[in-house]
Amino acid sequence: MKTVEMPKMGDTMEEGKILRWIKQEGDEVKKGESLAEVETDKVNIEIEAFASGILRKILVSEADSAPIGASIAYIGALDEALPGEGGGNGSNGKKGTTKKAQEKQSTSSAAPVAVAPAPRSTLAAPATEPAGRIFISPLARRLAEEHKIDYKQLRGTGPNGRIIKLDVETILKQTEPTPAFTLEPISVGMDNGDAVEMPLTTMRRTIARRLTQSMQNAPHFYVTSVIDTNKLGELRKQINEHTANDPNPIKVSFNDLIIKAVAIALLRMPQVNVSFAEDKLILKKQVHIGIAVALEQGLIVPVMHNADKRSVLDIARESRRLAEAARTNKLRPEDLSGGTFTISNLGMFEVESFTAVINPPESAILAVGSITPTPAVVDGQIVIRDRMKITLSSDHRALDGAVAARFLQELKRLLEEPFGLLL
C-alpha cells in the first residue's frame, strides 16, 4: 500500500487545500497521472501519482486542507488491507489529516458534484457514453470552465470517448469567446450599495503576510540606474531576425536579455547572491532567478534555475514555459522553489520606474521600468536615446550601499555593451 502525501510545492508552502479529486476511490491510477488539484499559497497545481494501482482511500476531502507531509490518500491493490483502518491518519507516523477531513471521510468516496456553467445553444451534441462520470482531460476541463462551456454536452474524440482540448477549441471557434479571466466580487456581510467586501484568496493572504514580514524584518534601501538600451535593442532585433526561419522560432524579449545580464552580474558579484540568516550570510553557489508574473488572482514568482548556464535562446524558451505554466496552473513544484534573486518587470505597463519588495529569503530584487525615448547628451550633442530605469532593492543586513551600486554598474555595462551576453 502506497501512501499519497501532501507534497511541498514551493519554499513558503505550509499546507495545501484539495480543490478537487481528479481520480475517485476505486479508480485505476497509473504512475504520472493527475490525482488531484491542490491550492497552495501561490497557485493551483495538479499533483501526480508516484505509483500505479487502485485509489483505495481518500483521506482529505475536497475543500479541506492538510499540512505538507500529511497522508491524503492510499494507492494499492484491491486485496491489500488499508493501514489504520478507520483511523484516518494511517500508521506511517506522518502528520494526519485535518479534523474536518476526518469527519468527512465516511463520505469521501462519493463523487464530487460538478457545478457547470449554463450550456450554450451551439454546443456539440451530448456525448453518448453511459451516465455517470464524464471522461475529460484536465486541460480540456480547465479550458471549458474558463470559457463557460458545459463540457457535459460535448462529444469526446479522444481515446474511449475522452474529451480533449481539441474538442473544446472546436466549440470555441463556433461560439463567441468570453474572457479567460473574470474577477467576480463576492458579497460578504452587509452590502449597502456603497461597497462590496471581497474575501482574500489563499494567494492574496500569503502575499500580504510575507511581504509585510519582508518590509518589517528587512531594512530596504534602493539604488537606481539609467540604462541606454539602443545597442540592446539592436542585438535583440538581430537575434530575432536570425532565428525567424528556425523550425520552432522563439522571439527574444528585452526581459530575456536582462535575465541573462543579471545572471552574469551575479556570477561576477556573488556577494549579492546571498541570504541573511541572523548570525550568518548564506552564499548561494547556484544562480536561480525568480521572474515575477502577474496573474488575475495575484503575483507569482516562478524560478528559472541555473540561469547563468543558459543561452539567451534557452532563457527565452524557459521564460515562455514558466509564464504559460503559471497562467494555466501547470507549474511544477520545482518551478516555485530555490530562487536566489528576483526580477520584477513592469515596463510593459508603461511604468517608468518603481521599487519592489524583496522576496524572502533573498536579499535583493531588481525592478525594471519601461524603455522610453529620452533626450540625452552624446558627444556634446542632444540626441534621442532609448533609456530604461532599473532599481535594486537590497536588504541592508546583507548588502551595503557600495555593493549594490557596484552591482548596478556591472549590470549597466553588460546591458549597454550587450554582445558579451552571447559569449
CATH class categorisation of the largest domain: Alpha Beta
Share of helix, binned: 10-25%
* Total domain count: 3
Low-confidence stretches: 86-131, 176-190
Mean of residue pLDDT values: 82
Class from helix and strand fractions: alpha+beta
Q: Write the CATH architecture name of the largest domain.
A: 2-Layer Sandwich
Q: Please tell me what the overall shape is.
A: globular
Major sheet attributes: 6 strands, mixed
Distance between the termini: 52 Å
Describe the oligomeric state of these chains in a short phrase.
single chain
Strand order of the largest sheet: 9-18-17-16-12-15
Strand content: 15-25%
Return the CATH topology of the largest domain: Chloramphenicol Acetyltransferase
The H-and-E topology, N to C, reads as EEEEEEEEHHHHEHHEEEEEEHEEEH
Q: Please report the number of helical segments.
A: 8
Rg is 25 Å
